[in-house]
Design a protein that fits this description.
This protein is mainly alpha-helical. It contains 5 helices and 3 strands. The chain has 2 domains: about 40 residues; about 80 residues, Orthogonal Bundle (Arc Repressor Mutant, subunit A), CATH 1.10.10. It has a 3-stranded antiparallel β-sheet with strand order 1-3-2. Helix 2 crosses helix 3 and helix 3 packs across helix 4.
Length: about 160
Amino acid sequence: MAEPLSISILRKKRDKIRDVVAAYEAKLKEAQADLAHVNATLRLFEVAGKPSDFPPYVDLNRVFRRGETTAICKAAIAAEGALDTRQLTERVMKAKGMDTADRVLWNTIALRVVQTMRCHAMKGRMDNSLRRKGVIVWQLPKPWQPTSIDLGNNPV
């Protein structure tokens, strides 16, 4: 027996409404993705410049001025004496108000400290000849003292 006309009309209407709802859901997902991108972009542009405002994956060149890492490290060494890389990393993070418990950020800052200090060690501005538990101990170079060999007083 054939279906009543009212049932066939209702089924067509149901299918049409289901298709419209599916289209609205797709547009809603697209709008939610757009909103997430706009919010992420705003978060990057609205930071106040404090290091804690930056997510860990942001380039740290924005956080440190040129030579600032070196200045912090040298000031710490001058005030406290020889410090190893871990101690210098902690001093730099505290000076910039960063979270010292964040291990990813800690490692990033430590690599920056090592690179900065190695550059100065190659130029003779820093001494890295000591090691403590496998970690470089950084210290200011000792002033040059002439020896008898330098003075030409070589007994022959």
